[in-house]
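Here's my example:
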Amino acid sequence: MSIDLVALDLDGTLLDSHEQVSEANRVAVAAALAEGVRVVLVTGRGVEAPTQIARNLGLALPVICCHGALTKDVSTGRTMGHIPVQAVYAKPMLAYAQESGIDLAVYLEERFYRIAGARQYMSDMRSPEWNEIASFDALPGVAPTFVRFLGSAAVAVARNRFAQLPLHFKYETWGDFEECAVTSREATKRHALENLCATYGITRERVMAVGDSRNDVPMLRWAGVGIAMGNAAPDVLRSIGRTTAGNDDDGVARAIEQYVLRGRYDARSA
C-alpha cells in the first residue's frame, strides 16, 4: 500500500545537529510533494519554528506543535486544534517554580514565558518567541498550552511533586540537558496526527512517521510505517522495528526514498 502522508518530527529528525534542513532532506521532501504525498511537521516546539520551516519547504498542511497540544493552519494562522493544560493544574506548578526558584517555562498564547534572569539552556531561548517576565502572576488567568520543567533539578520536581496529577509528563534528555514537558493527557503527537489524517480521509496504513524521541514512539507505532532515526535513544530503537540513518546523515531523505518514492516508482513501472 502506497504512502499518502509523511509525518516528520523536527529536532533530531528533519533537522540536523545544527538545526538545519539538509539539502538531501529538502530534495526528498520536494520529490514527495511532487508525487502528491502530503507532508506534515509534528514537533514539541512552539508554533514559530515549525511554521517557518513548513513555509520554506512549501508544505500546505497544518503544523502539529507543542507535543500535539496545538495544530495550526500555516497559510491562515487559524487554530485547528488546541488542548491546553487546565488552569487548576498549571497554577500550582507555576507558583511552586516561582517560590522555589526552579527553572520553568510556560507556553501561552503562542509565546514562551519564563522568569527574568533564569538560565538559558538553548540558543532558541533568545528568539522573539521567548519572553521574560518578573512574575508568573502577570500572566493572563487562562490555561497554558504546555509547561516545561527545564534542567535536572526542575525535572526532579516534576517527578516527585507533580507526577500524580492527571496530565501527560514527557521526559526527554538532550545531551546533558534534561527537560519535562507537561501537557493535557489528551495532547499527544499520535492523537493530533490521527485527527489530522481523519480530516483528510487518510488511513493509518497510508501514513509514514519518522522520529527520534520517546514522545514520538506512540506516533511511530500508530503509523502504517513507523521509522526511528539512527540517532534515537536505545529504548526508542528497541521499540520501533524500522530504522533509518541519523539526522546528520540524511535519515529522513533515505526513509522517504525507500518507503515513499520507490514504492510509487515501482507501481508505475509494474
